[in-house]
Model the fold of this input.
Amino acid sequence: MTKSVKEKPIVWTISGSDCSGGAGIAADIKTGHALGVEVCHLITANTVQNANRLVSINPVASEILQQQAKVLIDDKPPSVIKIGLIANLEQVKWLSELLAGFKAKYSKIIVVFDPVGQASVGGSFSALQREDLTLLFHYVDVITPNLMEAQQLSNLSTLNPVELATKIAELGIASVIVKGGHSNVLDHDGLPVSGDYCLHRVEQSSISYQLSSPRINTSYSHGGGCSFASALAAFLAQGYLLRDAFTLTKAFINQGLAKSVTTSMNKPDYYGAFEQTYWPDKADFFPRISSNLAEKHQGLPPFPSLALTDKKLGLYPVVDSLYWLKRILPLGLDIIQLRLKNKTDSELEQLIIAAIAISQPYKTRLFINDYWQLAIKHRAYGVHIGQEDLQDADLTKIQQSGLRLGISTHGCYEFLLAQQLQPSYLAIGAIFSTKTKNMSGQIQGVENLQHLLKLASNIPVVAIGGINHQRAERVWQTGVDSIAVVTAVTESENAEIAVKQFQHLMQ
Ligand SMILES: Cc1ncc(COP(=O)(O)OP(=O)(O)O)c(N)n1
Ligand SMILES: Cc1ncsc1CCOP(=O)(O)O
Ligand SMILES: [Mg+2]
Done:
Protein backbone atom coordinates (compact mmCIF):
# COMPACT_ATOMS: atom_id res chain seq x y z
CA MET A 1 0.00 0.00 0.00
CA THR A 2 1.34 3.46 -0.81
CA LYS A 3 1.70 6.14 1.84
CA SER A 4 -0.76 8.36 -0.02
CA VAL A 5 -3.68 6.07 0.83
CA LYS A 6 -5.58 7.78 3.63
CA GLU A 7 -5.56 5.68 6.77
CA LYS A 8 -8.97 4.98 8.16
CA PRO A 9 -9.70 5.41 11.87
CA ILE A 10 -9.99 2.09 13.70
CA VAL A 11 -12.96 0.99 15.77
CA TRP A 12 -12.86 -2.16 17.85
CA THR A 13 -16.11 -3.89 18.46
CA ILE A 14 -16.29 -6.25 21.41
CA SER A 15 -19.63 -7.93 20.82
CA GLY A 16 -21.39 -11.18 20.03
CA SER A 17 -21.73 -12.80 16.64
CA ASP A 18 -25.27 -13.24 15.29
CA CYS A 19 -25.18 -16.13 12.82
CA SER A 20 -28.16 -14.63 10.98
CA GLY A 21 -25.95 -11.68 10.02
CA GLY A 22 -28.32 -8.96 11.22
CA ALA A 23 -27.08 -7.87 14.62
CA GLY A 24 -23.89 -7.89 16.72
CA ILE A 25 -20.52 -8.07 15.01
CA ALA A 26 -22.09 -8.30 11.53
CA ALA A 27 -24.04 -5.06 12.05
CA ASP A 28 -20.92 -3.38 13.45
CA ILE A 29 -18.75 -4.34 10.48
CA LYS A 30 -21.35 -3.39 7.89
CA THR A 31 -21.96 -0.06 9.62
CA GLY A 32 -18.27 0.72 10.09
CA HIS A 33 -17.52 0.00 6.45
CA ALA A 34 -20.48 2.07 5.26
CA LEU A 35 -19.16 5.00 7.28
CA GLY A 36 -15.47 4.82 6.42
CA VAL A 37 -13.80 3.20 9.43
CA GLU A 38 -11.87 0.00 9.81
CA VAL A 39 -13.42 -2.48 12.23
CA CYS A 40 -11.53 -5.00 14.37
CA HIS A 41 -13.80 -7.50 16.09
CA LEU A 42 -13.41 -9.38 19.33
CA ILE A 43 -16.24 -11.86 19.53
CA THR A 44 -17.59 -12.37 23.04
CA ALA A 45 -20.10 -15.11 22.13
CA ASN A 46 -21.03 -17.20 19.16
CA THR A 47 -24.81 -16.99 19.28
CA VAL A 48 -27.27 -19.28 17.57
CA GLN A 49 -30.31 -17.27 16.45
CA ASN A 50 -32.54 -16.41 13.52
CA ALA A 51 -35.23 -13.87 12.82
CA ASN A 52 -37.65 -15.66 15.17
CA ARG A 53 -35.73 -17.06 18.10
CA LEU A 54 -32.57 -17.02 20.14
CA VAL A 55 -31.33 -20.59 20.64
CA SER A 56 -28.02 -20.29 22.49
CA ILE A 57 -25.25 -17.84 23.44
CA ASN A 58 -21.93 -19.82 23.65
CA PRO A 59 -19.47 -17.41 25.30
CA VAL A 60 -15.89 -17.24 24.05
CA ALA A 61 -13.16 -17.76 26.66
CA SER A 62 -11.70 -14.55 28.09
CA GLU A 63 -8.15 -15.80 27.40
CA ILE A 64 -8.89 -15.79 23.70
CA LEU A 65 -10.30 -12.26 23.89
CA GLN A 66 -7.23 -11.19 25.84
CA GLN A 67 -4.90 -12.67 23.21
CA GLN A 68 -6.83 -10.85 20.49
CA ALA A 69 -6.59 -7.54 22.34
CA LYS A 70 -2.86 -8.12 22.85
CA VAL A 71 -2.07 -8.72 19.19
CA LEU A 72 -4.28 -5.88 18.03
CA ILE A 73 -3.22 -3.08 20.34
CA ASP A 74 0.19 -2.45 18.71
CA ASP A 75 -0.93 -3.14 15.19
CA LYS A 76 -4.38 -1.58 15.09
CA PRO A 77 -4.90 0.67 18.12
CA PRO A 78 -8.51 1.83 18.35
CA SER A 79 -9.82 5.39 18.38
CA VAL A 80 -13.11 4.07 19.73
CA ILE A 81 -14.11 0.80 21.36
CA LYS A 82 -17.72 -0.24 20.92
CA ILE A 83 -18.99 -2.80 23.41
CA GLY A 84 -22.10 -4.86 22.80
CA LEU A 85 -22.97 -8.26 24.24
CA ILE A 86 -21.00 -9.25 27.33
CA ALA A 87 -21.78 -12.88 28.01
CA ASN A 88 -20.70 -13.45 31.63
CA LEU A 89 -19.04 -12.06 34.76
CA GLU A 90 -15.64 -13.32 33.72
CA GLN A 91 -15.86 -11.18 30.59
CA VAL A 92 -16.91 -8.15 32.64
CA LYS A 93 -13.81 -8.57 34.77
CA TRP A 94 -11.52 -9.05 31.78
CA LEU A 95 -13.00 -6.08 29.93
CA SER A 96 -12.83 -3.77 32.96
CA GLU A 97 -9.15 -4.59 33.42
CA LEU A 98 -8.45 -4.14 29.72
CA LEU A 99 -10.18 -0.75 29.63
CA ALA A 100 -8.51 0.38 32.86
CA GLY A 101 -5.12 -0.27 31.25
CA PHE A 102 -6.06 1.34 27.93
CA LYS A 103 -7.57 4.43 29.54
CA ALA A 104 -4.44 4.94 31.65
CA LYS A 105 -2.17 4.62 28.62
CA TYR A 106 -4.22 6.05 25.76
CA SER A 107 -6.36 8.78 27.28
CA LYS A 108 -8.07 9.61 23.98
CA ILE A 109 -9.77 6.23 23.47
CA ILE A 110 -13.55 6.63 23.63
CA VAL A 111 -15.68 3.74 24.92
CA VAL A 112 -19.25 3.35 23.66
CA PHE A 113 -21.37 0.71 25.43
CA ASP A 114 -24.59 -0.62 23.96
CA PRO A 115 -26.02 -2.70 26.81
CA VAL A 116 -27.43 -5.76 25.10
CA GLY A 117 -29.75 -7.58 27.49
CA GLN A 118 -32.95 -8.80 25.91
CA ALA A 119 -33.03 -10.33 22.43
CA SER A 120 -35.63 -8.53 20.30
CA VAL A 121 -36.97 -11.95 19.24
CA GLY A 122 -37.41 -12.91 22.91
CA GLY A 123 -34.99 -14.46 25.36
CA SER A 124 -32.09 -13.05 27.28
CA PHE A 125 -28.51 -12.67 26.10
CA SER A 126 -26.97 -12.87 29.53
CA ALA A 127 -27.92 -13.16 33.15
CA LEU A 128 -25.85 -10.10 34.05
CA GLN A 129 -27.51 -7.53 36.30
CA ARG A 130 -26.76 -3.84 36.61
CA GLU A 131 -24.66 -4.49 39.73
CA ASP A 132 -22.47 -6.92 37.78
CA LEU A 133 -21.55 -4.17 35.35
CA THR A 134 -20.60 -1.52 37.94
CA LEU A 135 -16.90 -2.08 37.44
CA LEU A 136 -17.22 -1.56 33.71
CA PHE A 137 -19.24 1.66 33.96
CA HIS A 138 -16.13 3.52 35.23
CA TYR A 139 -14.58 3.20 31.78
CA VAL A 140 -17.61 3.91 29.61
CA ASP A 141 -17.87 7.34 27.98
CA VAL A 142 -21.22 6.92 26.22
CA ILE A 143 -23.96 4.38 26.93
CA THR A 144 -26.81 3.84 24.45
CA PRO A 145 -29.69 1.87 26.04
CA ASN A 146 -33.15 1.62 24.52
CA LEU A 147 -36.09 2.35 26.82
CA MET A 148 -36.29 -1.19 28.23
CA GLU A 149 -32.56 -1.42 28.82
CA ALA A 150 -32.65 2.05 30.39
CA GLN A 151 -35.36 0.87 32.79
CA GLN A 152 -33.20 -2.10 33.81
CA LEU A 153 -30.09 0.01 34.24
CA SER A 154 -31.87 2.67 36.26
CA ASN A 155 -34.17 0.39 38.25
CA LEU A 156 -37.01 2.73 37.28
CA SER A 157 -40.27 1.80 35.61
CA THR A 158 -40.86 5.17 33.97
CA LEU A 159 -40.70 5.72 30.21
CA ASN A 160 -39.53 9.29 30.73
CA PRO A 161 -36.09 9.45 29.04
CA VAL A 162 -34.99 12.44 31.13
CA GLU A 163 -35.53 10.57 34.41
CA LEU A 164 -33.98 7.42 33.00
CA ALA A 165 -30.87 9.17 31.67
CA THR A 166 -30.41 11.17 34.88
CA LYS A 167 -30.48 8.00 36.97
CA ILE A 168 -28.12 6.14 34.63
CA ALA A 169 -25.67 9.05 34.66
CA GLU A 170 -25.40 8.50 38.42
CA LEU A 171 -23.59 5.26 37.61
CA GLY A 172 -20.66 7.48 36.63
CA ILE A 173 -21.12 7.56 32.86
CA ALA A 174 -20.48 10.94 31.21
CA SER A 175 -22.97 10.64 28.36
CA VAL A 176 -26.23 8.74 28.28
CA ILE A 177 -28.27 8.39 25.10
CA VAL A 178 -31.69 6.84 25.69
CA LYS A 179 -33.10 5.63 22.38
CA GLY A 180 -36.83 6.16 22.08
CA GLY A 181 -37.51 3.89 19.12
CA HIS A 182 -39.96 1.83 21.19
CA SER A 183 -41.91 4.71 22.75
CA ASN A 184 -45.48 5.69 21.96
CA VAL A 185 -44.93 9.44 21.77
CA LEU A 186 -47.03 11.38 19.22
CA ASP A 187 -46.25 14.75 17.63
CA HIS A 188 -48.62 17.76 17.44
CA ASP A 189 -50.43 16.17 14.49
CA GLY A 190 -50.90 12.86 16.31
CA LEU A 191 -48.22 11.07 14.28
CA PRO A 192 -45.77 8.73 16.05
CA VAL A 193 -42.30 10.14 16.65
CA SER A 194 -39.07 8.49 17.57
CA GLY A 195 -37.14 10.72 19.97
CA ASP A 196 -33.65 9.92 21.26
CA TYR A 197 -32.53 11.82 24.35
CA CYS A 198 -28.94 12.68 25.25
CA LEU A 199 -27.67 13.79 28.64
CA HIS A 200 -24.07 14.86 28.37
CA ARG A 201 -21.90 15.84 31.30
CA VAL A 202 -19.17 18.33 30.50
CA GLU A 203 -16.92 18.98 33.50
CA GLN A 204 -19.24 20.21 36.29
CA SER A 205 -22.30 21.00 34.19
CA SER A 206 -24.50 18.95 31.91
CA ILE A 207 -26.31 19.64 28.67
CA SER A 208 -29.21 17.75 27.21
CA TYR A 209 -31.11 17.60 23.98
CA GLN A 210 -33.54 15.41 22.14
CA LEU A 211 -33.40 14.43 18.48
CA SER A 212 -36.81 13.61 17.02
CA SER A 213 -37.94 12.19 13.71
CA PRO A 214 -41.22 10.78 12.42
CA ARG A 215 -41.36 7.06 13.19
CA ILE A 216 -40.48 4.93 10.18
CA ASN A 217 -42.64 1.82 9.94
CA THR A 218 -40.60 -1.20 9.02
CA SER A 219 -40.13 -4.67 10.43
CA TYR A 220 -36.56 -4.71 9.10
CA SER A 221 -34.87 -3.39 12.19
CA HIS A 222 -32.94 -6.42 13.49
CA GLY A 223 -29.52 -5.11 14.50
CA GLY A 224 -30.72 -1.48 14.51
CA GLY A 225 -29.52 -0.94 18.08
CA CYS A 226 -26.06 -2.39 17.36
CA SER A 227 -25.89 -0.29 14.20
CA PHE A 228 -26.80 2.82 16.18
CA ALA A 229 -23.92 2.30 18.62
CA SER A 230 -21.44 1.34 15.91
CA ALA A 231 -22.42 4.34 13.75
CA LEU A 232 -21.91 6.56 16.80
CA ALA A 233 -18.52 4.90 17.32
CA ALA A 234 -17.60 5.43 13.64
CA PHE A 235 -18.45 9.13 13.72
CA LEU A 236 -16.64 9.65 17.05
CA ALA A 237 -13.61 7.85 15.60
CA GLN A 238 -13.58 10.38 12.78
CA GLY A 239 -13.32 13.21 15.28
CA TYR A 240 -16.93 14.40 15.41
CA LEU A 241 -18.10 15.87 18.69
CA LEU A 242 -20.73 13.78 20.48
CA ARG A 243 -23.63 16.07 19.51
CA ASP A 244 -22.66 15.85 15.82
CA ALA A 245 -21.93 12.12 15.95
CA PHE A 246 -25.34 11.58 17.60
CA THR A 247 -27.13 13.70 14.98
CA LEU A 248 -25.39 11.90 12.10
CA THR A 249 -26.17 8.55 13.73
CA LYS A 250 -29.87 9.35 14.01
CA ALA A 251 -29.90 10.31 10.31
CA PHE A 252 -28.00 7.11 9.38
CA ILE A 253 -30.54 5.00 11.26
CA ASN A 254 -33.52 6.82 9.69
CA GLN A 255 -31.96 6.41 6.26
CA GLY A 256 -31.45 2.67 6.82
CA LEU A 257 -34.95 2.11 8.18
CA ALA A 258 -36.50 4.02 5.27
CA LYS A 259 -34.69 1.75 2.81
CA SER A 260 -36.78 -1.26 3.81
CA VAL A 261 -40.23 0.30 4.15
CA THR A 262 -41.52 -1.10 0.85
CA THR A 263 -39.96 -4.56 1.39
CA SER A 264 -41.44 -4.60 4.86
CA MET A 265 -44.93 -3.77 3.59
CA ASN A 266 -44.77 -6.84 1.35
CA LYS A 267 -43.55 -9.05 4.18
CA PRO A 268 -44.87 -7.40 7.35
CA ASP A 269 -44.44 -10.35 9.72
CA TYR A 270 -40.82 -11.01 8.88
CA TYR A 271 -38.23 -9.57 11.27
CA GLY A 272 -35.56 -8.55 8.78
CA ALA A 273 -32.11 -7.10 9.25
CA PHE A 274 -31.58 -3.35 9.46
CA GLU A 275 -30.08 -2.16 6.20
CA GLN A 276 -26.84 -0.19 6.37
CA THR A 277 -26.68 2.48 3.71
CA TYR A 278 -24.04 5.21 3.35
CA TRP A 279 -23.00 8.53 4.78
CA PRO A 280 -26.26 10.29 5.74
CA ASP A 281 -26.82 13.10 3.27
CA LYS A 282 -30.56 13.59 2.85
CA ALA A 283 -31.94 16.51 4.83
CA ASP A 284 -35.26 14.66 5.30
CA PHE A 285 -33.61 11.98 7.39
CA PHE A 286 -31.95 14.41 9.78
CA PRO A 287 -33.79 14.92 13.07
CA ARG A 288 -35.48 17.92 14.53
CA ILE A 289 -33.52 19.22 17.51
CA SER A 290 -35.24 20.00 20.80
CA SER A 291 -33.10 21.90 23.25
CA ASN A 292 -33.55 24.84 25.61
CA LEU A 293 -32.69 27.20 22.77
CA ALA A 294 -35.14 25.59 20.34
CA GLU A 295 -37.94 25.61 22.96
CA LYS A 296 -37.27 29.24 23.91
CA HIS A 297 -37.70 30.46 20.33
CA GLN A 298 -40.45 28.18 19.13
CA GLY A 299 -42.89 30.10 16.94
CA LEU A 300 -40.50 32.97 16.24
CA PRO A 301 -41.12 34.13 12.65
CA PRO A 302 -38.28 33.96 10.10
CA PHE A 303 -35.74 36.77 10.14
CA PRO A 304 -35.84 39.10 7.12
CA SER A 305 -34.03 37.79 4.08
CA LEU A 306 -31.01 39.46 2.52
CA ALA A 307 -33.10 40.11 -0.62
CA LEU A 308 -30.42 38.93 -3.01
CA THR A 309 -32.66 38.43 -6.05
CA ASP A 310 -31.21 35.21 -7.39
CA LYS A 311 -27.57 36.01 -6.94
CA LYS A 312 -25.00 34.77 -4.50
CA LEU A 313 -23.72 36.86 -1.62
CA GLY A 314 -20.07 36.53 -2.71
CA LEU A 315 -17.15 37.90 -0.71
CA TYR A 316 -17.87 38.85 2.91
CA PRO A 317 -14.98 40.81 4.43
CA VAL A 318 -14.93 40.88 8.24
CA VAL A 319 -13.04 43.96 9.48
CA ASP A 320 -12.17 45.49 12.83
CA SER A 321 -11.99 49.26 12.22
CA LEU A 322 -13.51 52.27 10.52
CA TYR A 323 -10.30 52.48 8.49
CA TRP A 324 -11.04 49.16 6.83
CA LEU A 325 -14.73 49.95 6.37
CA LYS A 326 -13.87 53.17 4.55
CA ARG A 327 -11.38 51.35 2.35
CA ILE A 328 -13.58 48.41 1.43
CA LEU A 329 -17.06 49.92 1.19
CA PRO A 330 -16.35 51.58 -2.22
CA LEU A 331 -15.39 48.18 -3.74
CA GLY A 332 -18.93 47.16 -4.66
CA LEU A 333 -19.55 44.31 -2.19
CA ASP A 334 -22.96 43.06 -1.06
CA ILE A 335 -22.01 42.47 2.56
CA ILE A 336 -19.41 43.47 5.17
CA GLN A 337 -19.06 42.95 8.92
CA LEU A 338 -17.65 45.11 11.69
CA ARG A 339 -16.10 42.74 14.24
CA LEU A 340 -14.91 44.75 17.23
CA LYS A 341 -13.01 43.11 20.07
CA ASN A 342 -11.44 44.52 23.25
CA LYS A 343 -13.12 47.94 23.17
CA THR A 344 -14.62 49.87 26.05
CA ASP A 345 -18.40 50.41 26.10
CA SER A 346 -18.16 54.04 25.02
CA GLU A 347 -15.66 53.23 22.25
CA LEU A 348 -17.99 50.52 21.02
CA GLU A 349 -21.02 52.74 20.78
CA GLN A 350 -19.13 55.54 19.00
CA LEU A 351 -17.57 53.10 16.54
CA ILE A 352 -20.88 51.45 15.77
CA ILE A 353 -22.65 54.80 15.24
CA ALA A 354 -19.84 55.91 12.91
CA ALA A 355 -19.76 52.59 11.03
CA ILE A 356 -23.50 52.73 10.33
CA ALA A 357 -23.19 56.34 9.11
CA ILE A 358 -20.21 55.53 6.87
CA SER A 359 -21.99 52.58 5.26
CA GLN A 360 -25.19 54.56 4.53
CA PRO A 361 -24.30 55.75 1.00
CA TYR A 362 -23.36 52.23 -0.14
CA LYS A 363 -25.49 49.25 -1.15
CA THR A 364 -23.24 47.06 1.07
CA ARG A 365 -25.13 45.37 3.91
CA LEU A 366 -23.39 46.15 7.22
CA PHE A 367 -23.53 43.47 9.91
CA ILE A 368 -22.37 44.23 13.44
CA ASN A 369 -20.70 41.30 15.21
CA ASP A 370 -21.76 40.42 18.77
CA TYR A 371 -23.25 43.77 19.92
CA TRP A 372 -26.86 43.20 19.05
CA GLN A 373 -28.26 45.81 21.49
CA LEU A 374 -26.15 48.57 19.91
CA ALA A 375 -26.96 47.27 16.45
CA ILE A 376 -30.67 47.57 17.24
CA LYS A 377 -30.29 50.94 18.96
CA HIS A 378 -28.52 52.48 15.98
CA ARG A 379 -30.43 50.57 13.32
CA ALA A 380 -27.69 48.58 11.61
CA TYR A 381 -28.66 46.40 8.67
CA GLY A 382 -27.96 43.21 10.57
CA VAL A 383 -26.23 41.52 13.46
CA HIS A 384 -23.98 38.45 13.55
CA ILE A 385 -24.19 36.23 16.63
CA GLY A 386 -21.95 33.37 17.67
CA GLN A 387 -22.90 30.28 19.65
CA GLU A 388 -21.64 31.77 22.93
CA ASP A 389 -24.04 34.72 22.65
CA LEU A 390 -26.95 32.86 21.08
CA GLN A 391 -28.20 31.46 24.40
CA ASP A 392 -28.62 34.91 25.98
CA ALA A 393 -29.39 37.14 22.99
CA ASP A 394 -32.99 38.36 22.80
CA LEU A 395 -33.81 36.99 19.36
CA THR A 396 -37.42 38.16 19.62
CA LYS A 397 -36.21 41.72 20.10
CA ILE A 398 -33.80 41.46 17.17
CA GLN A 399 -36.59 40.02 15.04
CA GLN A 400 -39.07 42.72 16.05
CA SER A 401 -36.52 45.43 15.31
CA GLY A 402 -36.37 44.24 11.70
CA LEU A 403 -32.63 43.51 11.77
CA ARG A 404 -31.23 40.65 9.74
CA LEU A 405 -29.54 37.90 11.72
CA GLY A 406 -26.47 35.81 10.88
CA ILE A 407 -25.52 32.87 13.13
CA SER A 408 -22.17 31.04 13.45
CA THR A 409 -22.30 27.25 13.45
CA HIS A 410 -19.69 24.53 13.82
CA GLY A 411 -21.02 21.15 12.74
CA CYS A 412 -24.35 19.58 11.85
CA TYR A 413 -25.99 19.80 15.29
CA GLU A 414 -25.51 23.56 15.57
CA PHE A 415 -26.29 24.01 11.88
CA LEU A 416 -29.66 22.22 12.11
CA LEU A 417 -30.55 23.93 15.37
CA ALA A 418 -29.64 27.39 14.03
CA GLN A 419 -31.54 26.64 10.82
CA GLN A 420 -34.68 25.96 12.89
CA LEU A 421 -34.43 29.61 14.02
CA GLN A 422 -34.70 30.72 10.36
CA PRO A 423 -31.96 33.39 10.39
CA SER A 424 -31.04 35.56 7.40
CA TYR A 425 -27.85 33.56 6.84
CA LEU A 426 -25.88 30.76 8.48
CA ALA A 427 -22.11 30.71 8.78
CA ILE A 428 -20.07 27.50 8.95
CA GLY A 429 -16.55 27.53 10.32
CA ALA A 430 -13.77 27.27 10.67
CA ILE A 431 -13.23 25.57 7.33
CA PHE A 432 -9.44 25.60 7.80
CA SER A 433 -7.27 26.41 10.78
CA THR A 434 -6.93 30.14 11.31
CA LYS A 435 -4.74 32.41 13.39
CA THR A 436 -7.53 34.98 13.74
CA LYS A 437 -9.53 33.03 16.30
CA ASN A 438 -8.98 29.97 18.45
CA MET A 439 -11.07 27.33 16.72
CA SER A 440 -9.31 24.20 17.98
CA GLY A 441 -11.55 21.17 17.82
CA GLN A 442 -13.92 22.96 15.45
CA ILE A 443 -12.16 22.76 12.10
CA GLN A 444 -14.74 21.57 9.58
CA GLY A 445 -12.79 20.97 6.36
CA VAL A 446 -14.22 21.23 2.86
CA GLU A 447 -15.72 17.73 2.92
CA ASN A 448 -17.79 18.49 5.98
CA LEU A 449 -18.84 21.81 4.47
CA GLN A 450 -20.12 19.84 1.48
CA HIS A 451 -22.10 17.52 3.77
CA LEU A 452 -23.59 20.47 5.65
CA LEU A 453 -24.63 22.27 2.48
CA LYS A 454 -26.85 19.29 1.67
CA LEU A 455 -28.80 20.04 4.86
CA ALA A 456 -29.33 23.70 4.01
CA SER A 457 -32.83 24.93 3.23
CA ASN A 458 -33.07 28.19 1.28
CA ILE A 459 -31.06 30.22 3.82
CA PRO A 460 -27.74 31.53 2.39
CA VAL A 461 -24.65 29.79 3.78
CA VAL A 462 -21.35 31.57 4.47
CA ALA A 463 -18.03 29.67 4.84
CA ILE A 464 -15.42 31.23 7.14
CA GLY A 465 -12.04 30.45 8.63
CA GLY A 466 -8.58 30.19 7.12
CA ILE A 467 -9.80 30.89 3.59
CA ASN A 468 -7.26 32.58 1.31
CA HIS A 469 -7.10 33.00 -2.46
CA GLN A 470 -5.49 29.63 -2.94
CA ARG A 471 -8.16 27.76 -0.96
CA ALA A 472 -11.12 29.87 -2.06
CA GLU A 473 -11.72 28.03 -5.32
CA ARG A 474 -12.22 24.65 -3.60
CA VAL A 475 -14.57 26.27 -1.11
CA TRP A 476 -16.52 28.15 -3.79
CA GLN A 477 -16.96 24.94 -5.80
CA THR A 478 -18.98 23.45 -2.95
CA GLY A 479 -21.79 25.82 -3.94
CA VAL A 480 -21.61 27.94 -0.79
CA ASP A 481 -23.26 31.39 -1.10
CA SER A 482 -20.49 33.43 0.43
CA ILE A 483 -16.91 33.30 1.68
CA ALA A 484 -16.05 35.40 4.72
CA VAL A 485 -12.44 36.41 5.26
CA VAL A 486 -10.43 38.47 7.69
CA THR A 487 -6.70 38.21 7.06
CA ALA A 488 -6.89 37.31 3.36
CA VAL A 489 -7.95 40.94 2.89
CA THR A 490 -6.57 42.86 5.87
CA GLU A 491 -3.13 41.26 5.73
CA SER A 492 -2.80 41.20 1.96
CA GLU A 493 -0.27 43.38 0.21
CA ASN A 494 -3.01 45.30 -1.50
CA ALA A 495 -6.52 44.99 -0.14
CA GLU A 496 -8.21 46.39 -3.26
CA ILE A 497 -6.48 43.82 -5.47
CA ALA A 498 -7.21 41.04 -2.96
CA VAL A 499 -10.92 41.90 -3.00
CA LYS A 500 -10.95 42.07 -6.83
CA GLN A 501 -9.37 38.62 -7.09
CA PHE A 502 -11.99 37.13 -4.78
CA GLN A 503 -14.77 38.91 -6.68
CA HIS A 504 -13.44 37.53 -9.95
CA LEU A 505 -13.42 34.00 -8.54
CA MET A 506 -16.95 34.28 -7.17
CA GLN A 507 -18.60 35.82 -10.24
C1 LIG B 1 -19.63 35.50 8.89
C2 LIG B 1 -19.12 35.16 10.23
N1 LIG B 1 -19.08 33.90 10.60
C3 LIG B 1 -18.62 33.56 11.81
C4 LIG B 1 -18.19 34.52 12.68
C5 LIG B 1 -17.73 34.18 14.06
O1 LIG B 1 -18.63 34.69 15.00
P1 LIG B 1 -18.49 34.23 16.51
O2 LIG B 1 -18.62 32.76 16.55
O3 LIG B 1 -19.40 35.05 17.32
O4 LIG B 1 -17.00 34.62 16.86
P2 LIG B 1 -16.42 36.08 16.96
O5 LIG B 1 -16.36 36.65 15.58
O6 LIG B 1 -17.33 36.88 17.83
O7 LIG B 1 -15.08 35.89 17.55
C6 LIG B 1 -18.24 35.85 12.26
N2 LIG B 1 -17.83 36.86 13.04
N3 LIG B 1 -18.71 36.14 11.03
C1 LIG C 1 -14.16 35.02 13.18
C2 LIG C 1 -13.99 33.62 12.78
N1 LIG C 1 -14.95 32.73 13.04
C3 LIG C 1 -14.66 31.51 12.62
S1 LIG C 1 -13.16 31.45 11.90
C4 LIG C 1 -12.92 33.10 12.14
C5 LIG C 1 -11.70 33.81 11.72
C6 LIG C 1 -11.59 34.03 10.26
O1 LIG C 1 -10.43 34.73 9.99
P1 LIG C 1 -9.46 34.38 8.79
O2 LIG C 1 -10.20 34.64 7.52
O3 LIG C 1 -8.30 35.31 8.96
O4 LIG C 1 -9.05 32.94 8.94
MG1 LIG D 1 -19.25 36.51 18.63
Remarks:
- The domain at 10-290 is CATH 3.40.1190.20 (UDP-N-acetylmuramoyl-L-alanine:D-glutamate ligase).
- The pocket of TZP (ligand 2) is lined by residues 429-430, 434, 436-437, 439, 464-467, 485-488 (CB under 6 Å).
- The chain is about 35% helix and 20% strand.
- The chain has a mean pLDDT of 94.
